[in-house]
């Protein structure tokens, strides 16, 4: 029994020691442990959050860390919020904004008393619309400031941002997959156009030009969206000419032509009719900040960039 108790104690002690430590509150609302926020931005956020607490009693704090050290952001965020006791004890009106820079993750942790107005869906929208785009540009000052403004407006029922630009805010991986799928579909028709002789081959070329030229602007906004269209405009005629100069290209073109004329195989031919900061935290004006005893239950939302 003693051996079991010792082993259990060592196991629990090791598990606790392995957890990422939670920093002390130290009387400040903005804790930039990752040192990604400018000094003047920290000062402005401190003043903004203090004024907001004075007028509403809602407590909002910010914490940036370099890494979560293997812990999930939901677990760590809840441990921070519980230790800091954000919000008033009788209102549970606290909010924690946590950013793990190296892990590219962020979370808005919401106290029990604000879950009705600062819903999970609203927090997710703030993360997607305000934080993620700025963080992808390494603009942590702008993203955090926009998020705090959106959170305060959300609590007051004044945040009205929509998802009209949701396609542009998709992750890089999602945009690439969408783009590859669309271009694979268009590429099938472009491939046929390379081997079809006569006017139909050039008709396909002209028909697909707007798709290759305009569609990338919607899928890849802000990037070199014109490259696919320009490559298609220049590359198709060159490749078509080169293909028609090779023996295998001539054979394939002949098969297309024969297949369309016989009616026993393919349907493509020239006459076919296809047409279907420096310090981790900053205290402004000598004010001291402390949690009011609020509680949390896991409300909020997480995201990544």
List keywords for this structure.
305 residues; single chain; five-stranded mixed beta sheet; elongated; alpha/beta
Mean pLDDT: 78
Largest sheet: 5 strands, mixed
Q: Based on helices, strands and strand pairing, what is the structural class? A: alpha/beta
Question: What is the radius of gyration?
Answer: 29 Å
Question: Helix count, per DSSP?
Answer: 9
Question: How far do the termini sit from each other?
Answer: 50 Å
Shape: elongated
**Fraction of residues in H or I helices:** 40-55%
Indicate the proportion of strand residues.
Answer: 5-15%
Strand arrangement, largest sheet? 1-2-3-4-5
Tally of strands = 5
Topology as H/E string?
Answer: HEHEHEEHHHHHHE
Kindly describe this structure.
The structure is a single chain. With 305 residues, the chain is an alpha/beta fold. It contains 9 helices and 5 strands. It has a 5-stranded mixed β-sheet with strand order 1-2-3-4-5. The chain is elongated. It starts with a helix and ends with a strand. Residues 164-169 and 260-286 have low confidence and may be disordered.
């Amino acid at each position: 029994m003693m051996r079991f108790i010792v082993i259990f104690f060592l196991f629990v002690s090791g598990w606790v020691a392995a957890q990422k430590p939670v920093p002390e509150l130290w009387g400040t609302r903005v804790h930039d442990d990752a040192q990604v926020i400018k000094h003047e931005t920290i000062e402005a956020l401190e003043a903004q959050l203090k004024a907001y607490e004075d007028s509403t009693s809602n407590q909002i704090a910010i914490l940036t860390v370099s890494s979560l050290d293997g812990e999930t952001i939901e677990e760590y965020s809840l441990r921070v919020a519980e230790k800091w006791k954000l919000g008033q004890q009788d209102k549970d009106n606290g909010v924690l904004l946590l950013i793990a820079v190296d892990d590219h993750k962020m979370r808005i942790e919401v106290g029990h008393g604000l879950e009705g107005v600062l819903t999970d869906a609203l927090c997710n929208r703030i993360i997607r619309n305000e934080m993620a785009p700025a963080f992808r540009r390494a603009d942590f000052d702008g993203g955090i400031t926009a998020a705090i403004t959106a959170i305060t407006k959300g609590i007051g029922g004044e945040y009205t941002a929509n998802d009209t630009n949701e396609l542009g805010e998709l992750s890089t991986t999602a945009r690439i997959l969408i783009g590859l799928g669309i271009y694979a579909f268009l590429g099938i028709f472009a491939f046929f156009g390379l081997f079809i002789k006569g006017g139909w081959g050039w008709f396909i070329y002209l028909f697909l030009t707007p798709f290759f030229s305009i569609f990338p602007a919607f899928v890849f906004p802000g990037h070199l969206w014109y490259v696919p269209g320009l490559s298609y405009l220049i590359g198709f005629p060159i490749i078509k000419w080169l293909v028609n100069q090779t023996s295998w290209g001539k054979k394939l073109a002949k098969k297309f032509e024969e297949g369309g004329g016989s009616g026993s195989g393919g349907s493509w031919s020239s006459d076919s009719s296809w047409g279907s900061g420096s310090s981790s935290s900053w205290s402004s004006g000598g004010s001291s900040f402390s949690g009011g005893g609020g509680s949390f239950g896991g409300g909020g939302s997480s995201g990544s960039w």
